[in-house]
Design goal:
Layout: H1 21-29, E1 34-38, E2 44-49, E3 52-59, H2 62-81, E4 89-90, E5 100-102, E6 111-117, H3 132-163, H4 182-191, H5 196-213, E7 222-226, E8 234-237, E9 244-248, E10 254-258, H6 259-270, H7 282-291, H8 296-323, H9 330-344, H10 348-358, E11 382-383, H11 403-411, E12 418-419, H12 427-432, E13 441-442, E14 445-450, E15 454-456, E16 461-466, E17 469-473, E18 478-482, E19 484-485, E20 493-494, E21 499-503, E22 510-518, E23 528-529, H13 531-540, E24 541-542, H14 545-548, E25 564-566, E26 569-571, E27 577-580, H15 593-605, H16 613-624, E28 632-637, H17 639-653, E29 662-665, H18 679-683, E30 689-692, E31 702-706, H19 724-736, H20 740-763, E32 768-773, E33 776-781, H21 786-795, E34 798-799, E35 801-803, E36 807-811, H22 818-831, E37 863-864
Helix pairs in contact: 2-3, 3-6, 3-7, 4-5, 4-8, 5-8, 6-8, 8-9, 8-10, 10-13, 15-19, 16-19, 20-22
């Protein structure tokens, strides 16, 4: 936010001439340098020489002298006794005095002056306070500054008590920006703004905010504070990391005031034009409260006072622009206006709830309410589960935009009554989201009940009609209903139990009633909230369970572990999907119905024994996909042991001068290359031994296959250790791989995957090489630990494996979509910090006689041991 000198809020007076600042500094302090006048009354100047900045302040009135003296003592104690916060240091004049008095001359009246040396450091630029950590540092600094000021003030008092028991108590320090005087100040500032379109919105917002503070003003703690611990009033360092505040530069901002006003001034400076908007203040609020706990009334006053501070800042710039058009920079003026609009665009109750939520403040007690539908037996209302763990969501039916209504209608069929759940993270809305966040936390309940069901007021209040909704506002709650027929007019007052209306619909039909219950009369809870704002909105909304006589609350989502898979996606309890390239999706992807059916039927029969029909059928299905001479499967085990066994058999069964060809199809087999079933088929290789991977992820179904004719009679073969269920699923996978559409989709995905990764390889200046083929690839990095890359991708909802430190393994199912590949490539580019590619020039049309160039082959053969 644009910084404005707090003294600009005062009337600009026309005093008699003051001493020349350059001559005064040279004569009394022996100082010279670059002078910058500040728009203050009495006048003040900044003097810069070498790496030092000083502030010269003039005064002539007795009360000003008292303020100078009090600040001088206070700052001296801060420098002597407290080290956490750096403060301006009063400089001694050539004659050794802290305050210089001068006589009247023909050019100026008598008066006095003081010079403060600013602490070392730089003021922050706007970008220095944008991230969460920087805002936390600012909040912590503001709280520590108040603590140090209090300690220094106490030390001054103790010292004076020891010197003179009968001393006269020092007057309180007064700062021009004291928000306790905001009303009169804004009136003076806006007096010179003649344009009502500019003046009136500021005045209206200020009046509204000050009315919210006025009833609790007497309960707000008052002590010595810094009234603007933000912006250019701060200094800090950024040597070993981001800029962090270390001190303040303007002693005139010290004065008695509300503790919470200091935090409000900081918050006014932190409201974002973009990004988090008004919620950008929360990290600073949490850090301030952790260091200097605020009381409940202070938390209630914080946001209104933030609006007041922003209004004063804007009013000062508008006044400046009105009195001297063009002198206020257009950028500063436009930014101040936009930020004020951002702040006013948030309901005060929402911001108060956000502040309480970021502090984990206890929730307010729920009111006692009566039932909305007294004619209905609540036990007959069936609840529909629309969460990520719902058994009603199968085979991707959540992709249907109408699925929530369809499932509600199905669940309500028997009893003619059903309801959705409050506080539930809807799977369908999370899946449909295009960004990283989705508003899928339900803050309402949709209820199916017979049309004509009577609804009564659960509490006393006033009836209003707005936006097709009936609104009943009471002292402790507000009820928003859609789907109700009523004859009540606006302004009708009701007692609890009075008739509201009836559920709309034809006789004998099922009517729908949408219920939202809130705490604030003027704040309508949204139908859905994002997970990030869900806890906040639960402070402002109430569960319809309070008026239905039935617990319609969904259980807490709980763990962040994945709870559902579908194709190449896995979903967390909030319903958000990640692309799974870890290999866990297997060949066909998560949630394939044929695999689920096969596993279910085999479990009903038998599992856990070797030599079952399921095992024999799997071996037969696998052998059918092999060349005829490879007719014997001698092991079903895990993939590592399978390769080890194949090497041992090769050494024993074949002469050493003719080493056997072992085709390692653990990563290339079952169509993962996208073009052939086995990689050795494409290359025309006739292997002696084939090692396959498991067609079922994480199951011991890797196989070693060779010709029976080479087996000696005394060879002891290991017994298969695969379960019957795993074998049955493996057979189902092999059968499903015969689907032509799946094979074609895998071919397209493989080509696209390799192309996108090669583009990234070029953009990354060959920081990695690509190994493997098809949908099973490794990115091998020349330097660095790939765990950080894997973590970065996981944060962007892409799951991969970090192998052996320098290797990133990406293993996708054959159903991997082109859209998912695009997301993976984008996420990887972001994690690697790659610049956006240059737009391609349109290709020139070739001459008809030109032959197109032949692309070199990039195919990789299966590993040969």
């Amino acid at each position: 936010m644009a910084d404005v000198d707090t003294d600009e809020m005062q009337e600009v007076a026309k005093p008699t001439a003051w001493p020349g600042a350059d001559v005064f500094l040279a004569d009394h302090y022996g100082l010279s340098g670059d002078l910058e006048p500040l728009e203050t009354d009495p006048p003040s100047f900044l003097l810069r020489y070498e790496e030092v900045t000083c502030r010269l302040q003039f005064g002539r009135e007795p009360d000003e002298l008292e303020q100078f003296q009090t600040r001088t003592e206070l700052l001296s104690h801060i420098h002597a006794e407290f080290g956490r916060v750096q403060a301006p240091r009063p400089l001694e004049a050539i004659d050794g005095s802290s305050i210089v008095f001068y006589e009247a001359t023909a050019d100026h009246d008598a008066g006095f002056a003081i010079v403060y040396a600013h602490p070392p450091g730089e003021a922050p630029n706007r970008g220095a306070t944008r991230d969460t950590a920087a805002r936390q540092q600012l909040g912590l600094f503001a709280a520590r500054l108040i603590r140090d000021l209090t300690a220094a003030q106490d030390a001054v008092g103790r010292e004076e008590d020891e010197e003179d028991d009968a001393r006269v108590e020092q007057p309180p320090l007064i700062a021009a920006s004291d928000l306790r005087q905001a009303g009169p100040v804004v009136v003076r500032l806006l007096r010179d703004v003649s344009d009502p379109a500019v003046r009136d919105p500021i005045a209206k917002a200020m009046v509204t905010a000050l009315r919210q503070v006025q009833p609790i003003g007497a309960d707000l703690r008052v002590q010595l504070i810094h009234h603007h611990p933000a912006g250019r009033d701060l200094v800090g360092e950024a040597e070993d990391g981001p800029w962090a505040p270390t001190g303040f530069s303007d002693p005139a901002a010290l004065g008695d005031g509300w503790i919470v006003a200091s935090l409000a001034a900081l918050c006014a400076d932190l409201v974002d034009e973009d990004g988090d908007g008004a919620l950008a203040i929360l990290p600073a609020v949490a850090a301030f409260h952790a260091e200097l706990p605020l009381q409940e009334t202070e938390l209630k006053a914080l946001w209104p006072l933030t609006i007041v501070q922003m209004g004063l800042n804007l009013a000062a710039i508008e006044r400046w622009e009105a009195m001297a058009p063009g002198e206020a920079t257009s950028q500063a003026l436009l930014q101040a206006r936009r930020l004020f609009e951002v702040a006013l665009g948030v309901h005060p109750a929402f911001m108060h709830a956000a502040i309480l939520d970021c502090l984990d403040w206890p929730l307010a007690d729920e009111p006692a309410l009566e039932r909305l539908l007294p004619e209905i037996d609540p036990d007959l209302i069936r609840l529909v589960d629309l969460s990520a763990t719902s058994s009603l969501l199968t085979e991707g039916n959540w992709e249907d935009p109408e699925v929530d209504w369809r499932l509600l209608a199905r669940i309500a069929w028997d009893t003619k009554m059903g309801a959705t759940r409050y506080g539930e993270y809807r799977m369908s809305r999370a899946f449909a989201a295009t960004g990283p966040e989705a508003d899928n936390l339900a803050l309402h309940v949709d209820l199916c009940v017979p049309a004509g069901t009577v609804a009564v007021a659960p509490f006393g209040g006033m009836v209003r009609h707005t936006g097709g909704r009936l609104l009943l506002t009471g002292k402790e709650a507000s009820l928003h209903l859609e789907g109700l027929d009523t004859i009540l007019a606006d302004g009708t007052a009701l007692f609890a139990g009075d008739r509201l209306g009836v559920v709309a619909g034809a006789d004998g039909s099922i009517g729908g009633l949408r219920i939202r219950l809130g705490r604030e009369a003027e704040l309508l809870p949204p139908l859905f909230a994002t997970p990030a704002t869900g806890r906040l909105w639960k402070r402002l909304s109430l569960s319809p369970s309070l008026i239905l006589g039935l617990d319609v609350d969904a259980p807490e989502a709980g763990s962040t572990a994945y709870v559902r898979g579908w194709r190449e996606h896995v979903f967390d309890p909030l319903g958000f999907g990640s692309i799974d390239l870890s290999g866990a999706a297997g060949l066909l992807g998560h949630g394939h119905p044929a695999l689920a059916e096969a596993a279910y039927r085999q479990w009903l029969m038998i599992n856990g024994l070797s030599g079952t029909p399921a095992e024999m059928e799997f071996q037969a299905a696998l052998q059918q996909r092999m060349p005829g001479e490879l007719d014997t499967i001698i092991a079903l085990t895990d993939e590592g042991q399978a390769l080890e066994l194949a090497v041992q058999l090769g050494d024993r069964l074949y002469p050493q001068d003719e080493p056997p060809i072992i085709a390692d199809e653990r990563r290339t087999g079952f169509g993962r290359t996208g073009d052939v079933y086995w990689a050795f088929e494409r290359d025309g290789v006739a292997p002696d031994i084939v090692v396959t991977g498991s067609p079922v992820a994480d199951e011991r179904l890797a196989a070693v296959i060779l010709r029976r004719s080479v087996l000696p009679e005394d060879l002891q073969l290991p017994r298969p250790d695969a379960s019957a269920v795993a074998c049955r699923i493996g057979t189902a996978v092999i059968d499903a791989l015969e689907e032509p559409q799946l094979r074609e989709a895998a071919r397209q995905a493989s080509a696209e995957f390799m192309e996108r990764l090669r583009e990234l390889q070029v953009r990354a200046s060959d920081a990695f090489v690509i190994e493997g083929e098809g949908l099973s690839l490794d990115l091998v990095f020349e330097a660095g630990d790939t765990r950080a890359v894997a973590d970065g991708l996981a944060g962007r909802r892409v799951l991969v494996q970090s192998i052996a430190g320098d290797r990133l393994r990406l293993t996708g199912p054959l159903c991997l979509s082109l859209a998912s590949i695009d997301r993976v490539a984008t996420a990887l580019a972001q994690v690697l910090g790659l610049p956006e590619p240059e737009p391609e020039e349109p290709p020139e049309e070739p001459d008809a006689a030109d032959e197109p160039p032949t692309a070199p082959s990039d195919e990789v053969s299966p590993a040969v041991v």
